[in-house]
Design a protein that fits this description.
Elements: H1 2-26, E1 35-38, E2 41-44, H2 47-82, H3 92-103, H4 105-108, H5 114-129, H6 149-159
Antiparallel strand pairs: 1-2
Helix pairs in contact: 1-2
Amino acid sequence: MKEFIRDFNRRVAEIQKYFELVDKIEQLGALSAKSIVFPSGEYIVDSEIQKILKSHCYLLLYNLVESSIRNGITAIHDVILIEQLTYKDLSPKIKRLWLLNDKSKSFRDSYIKKDSVADNLQELIKSVLDDEMVSLDPSNIPISGNLDAKTIKELIDLTG
């Protein structure tokens, strides 16, 4: 979990540096002929470049949110693995998540025979009663690329 927080703080610092650069460039003025001097020469900053730089600010923030959500959920998975937690050690929401995403695969398809369902249920019950370590598969994190406020809320509700 500490690694997750360090990574988040590192990314926030990178974004803050970028915002500082964009702010300094914006201070040059939208219609001015002012330029930035690089070792390779002078570069005139026009209003189009400023718009592009500002739009990248939104992309950076979105990527920070998306990666933080994904990495936060992965950190939960990692803690469960590192601390070798069992079913009874988990919160009710994580228990449900484990059942929904990692253990319910064998019950989803309509062509599965009742015997297979019974065998899978016995295996599941045995793992709970025997205090076997729980393992969550990070590939089951329900993030599909478009992360909005509604999806984030659903993930929070799902994981607790």
